[in-house]
Specification:
single chain, two-stranded antiparallel sheet, 1 helix, 2 strands, 6% strand
């Protein structure tokens, strides 16, 4: 059983995840729904994503290895489109929120 921390559903039985914007060096972009990726479409209308279980037309769960970057169209988990994060400023921000 794999519960998604964003939609709080079982990933392989839920239709898909909530819409989470993708942080890129060009700013936040809308995620690419499963089945809308450039290249390999799902085999059938009800064919779930092999990794996260999303149905066509729904969003992949975070960290899915099939999710496509909306900026470069490569695999999201391995592309270079995410902005670099200054870890020291992130830590300062976390302290301010506490």
């Amino acid at each position: 059983m794999a519960i998604c921390k964003y939609c709080e559903q079982e990933m392989h039985t839920a239709n898909g995840c909530v819409k989470l914007s993708v942080k890129t060096i060009d700013g936040p972009l809308d995620p690419v729904p499963y089945g809308s990726e450039l290249g390999n479409p799902p085999e059938t209308e009800d064919h779930r994503c092999h990794d996260c279980g999303a149905l066509p037309g729904y969003y992949h769960h975070a960290g899915c290895d099939w999710e496509q970057c909306p900026r470069c169209h490569d695999q999201l988990i391995s592309c270079d489109c995410e902005p670099e994060v200054d870890e020291s400023s992130e830590a300062e921000e976390a302290v301010r929120k506490d």
